[in-house]
Design brief:
The protein is an all-alpha fold and 220 residues long. Helices cover 73% and strands 0% of the residues.
Amino acid sequence: MARTGRRPGNQDTREVILAAATKAFAEHGFDGASIRQIATSAGVDPALVHHYFGSKDKLFLAAMNAPLDPGTILPKVFEPGLDGVGERLVRTFLTVWDSPAGNTAAALVRSALQHEWSARMLREFLVSQILRRATSALNLDPAEAPKRTALVASQMIGLALMRYILKLEPLASMTQDDVVRTIGPTIQQYLADPLPRPAAATVKADISDESVRRAAPRGQ
């Protein structure tokens, strides 16, 4: 009789784990999915998940088919601190996209534009693997970090779309140095400069000031 219970370790088991992980991350996000939950769905012991993938981060990168591990390259970008981080980030981004890994990255972005499932996975990748690292390494104000890092992400994804996917000229043909000099200061501004006041707060303040002027006795 065929044995029942948890699967033994083999290549098929690895693919089953990967399929279960992909589904869990897409449905519950990086934080909401657990190794134990994924192992149960795959019918294996959690130790087998660690055996094949090492950590939750590594499992997520495998599920994403990520072209590289941000944990190996981002420390060089963020650890020197805020000074010059905009140019370092843009240069690293361009180096990755100009390498063979850029083809895989382009495929991920194209898929995210066409399928909500892929968009959720890419969003989780950006938040858990890149933006969260930036917030921690750069000691960003927790109240401002989500807005700052989202602005950075919008700029970088826009750069990828225009330069590598739509190939909009002259951006597509600009040298790395030219792109770094042009876009780096914008990234630096998003991460280091004071953020504008919210429009609603500005309007409220203007109304309040006007009310004070109207209420003040004439001649003051």
